[in-house]
Description:
elongated, single chain, mainly alpha
Amino acid sequence: MRYLVQAGCAREHVGKVIQTVFASAGIKVKGDPSRCTVTRAGREGLLYSQIQLGYEMEGAASMTFSGDGTTHRGIQYYA
């Protein structure tokens, strides 16, 4: 559902798209997620991805952060 919304599919049409895709493969889908359900799934996915990122950062031996400025040997230069 999140990928469909990211691709530009309206939340109220996600269920119909899922049913159509599965029907083309001969699979019948029971139920139809509402717009609210699709929105909640997107929020939960964002929250879980942030938790996963924090977990991975905690266990990392080292990290590198970068910005969109100009750097030379780790020194940030601003124009």
